[in-house]
Prior knowledge:
- The protein is mostly helical.
- It contains four helices and two strands.
- It has one domain (10-87): Arc Repressor Mutant, subunit A (Orthogonal Bundle).
- It has helices spanning 10-35, 41-48, 52-64, 79-87; strands at 68-71, 74-77.
- It has a two-stranded antiparallel sheet.
Amino acid sequence: MEKTAHDPSEKDKETLLSFRYLLGEMGIQMLVAIYRGANTKTAIQLLSGVPMSCVIGRLPVLLNLNLVYQTQEEYHVTEKGIQFLKVTDQD
C-alpha cells in the first residue's frame, strides 16, 4: 500500500522545502521513520537512529509544522508530511 498526497503548488513546495532547515537531518530521519511505520518514540528512535533526547525534542517541531499528528502515544504522517517527503525526495 503506497501512501500518496496531492502534488503541492510551487509556493507550497517552497514552504515545504524551507522546513528542511527547521527540521535538520535528524528531524527528516524521524519523519521518514514515522512514514515507514515507526509510530512510538522508541520505534522512531530504533528505525531512525536518532538519540531519544533528540526524538523527544523534535517531535513537537514535527507536530507544530503539521507534518505528523499524534493519537494517544502514537505518531502518524499527515498529508503535508507526505508532500514534504515527496518534494525532498525522501519518499
